[in-house]
Design brief:
Blueprint: H1 2-37, H2 45-48, H3 52-76, H4 79-105, H5 107-125, H6 132-146, H7 178-188, H8 190-221
């Protein structure tokens, strides 16, 4: 009977860790996507200090490694690995929840930082300093990607509106500003991000429950490696 329960718990633990590993891979992929599609650190230096894309990369790697640790602990019936997996998963979940709460609490402040960075970056891009060329290139990339112009509208660039503000083969300019486009992008992905965090936390809680259950079962039955 004990062997049957242990086998069932091991299989369940392996499935839970596989789901955690897939979540870690998804977080890692999203971090790579942000780094490739939105390399605008020079335009938003204040936000770039937080290195959101790099944080996602690190988080994805950590989640993947921790899930592998749990899988190995369940496979080897090692109580030390299971307990380490439980503690690491618990700390990781606390960090994720704290980060999500901070983003929610300081949403307006982040918007103010974004507006200030874009305004300062555009002013410098219109100048003649050595950094202006790189900033103009970043602005061109941003405006071509989001189909926007300036911080609020094309008047921010007057009297010299760049070609990146104009759709191909037309003389008109994009009416929307890049600030609005960026805010819309974050708002459109806000629900998806929130659901992803909730699902990830649920999977992590299930992983912790299975790990502790398996740990207690091994301890009571005297099976597996000792601490």
């Amino acid at each position: 009977m004990a062997q049957g329960c242990l086998k069932c718990l091991k299989i369940t633990m392996c499935i839970a860790n596989f789901l955690c590993f897939m979540c870690g891979a998804a977080v890692l992929g999203f971090g790579v996507y942000l780094m490739v599609q939105f390399p605008f650190a020079a335009l938003t230096p204040t936000l770039a200090q937080f290195s959101i894309a790099r944080m996602l990369l690190i988080s994805g790697i950590i989640i993947s490694c921790v899930s592998f640790l749990g899988f190995l602990g369940a496979l080897k019936e090692n109580r030390c690995l299971l307990l380490t997996f439980f503690l690491l998963l618990f700390l990781l979940m606390l960090v994720e929840l704290a980060a999500a709460c901070l983003l929610l609490m300081h949403e307006k402040l982040i918007g103010q930082w974004l507006e200030k960075d874009l305004t300062d970056g555009l002013k410098e891009a219109k100048g003649t300093s050595s950094n202006s060329t790189q900033l103009r290139s970043d602005w061109d990339l941003l405006q071509n990607t989001l189909h926007c112009c300036g911080v609020r509208n094309a008047t921010d660039w007057e009297p010299n509106v760049p070609d990146s503000c104009k759709p191909e083969k037309t003389k008109t300019v994009y009416k929307a500003g890049c600030l609005v486009k960026l805010q819309d992008f974050f708002e459109e992905n806000f629900v998806t991000t929130g659901i992803s965090v909730i699902v990830l936390c649920i999977i992590e809680v299930l992983g912790m429950c299975f790990a502790m259950t398996l740990f207690c079962h091994i301890s009571r039955s005297g099976l597996g490696y000792k601490l």
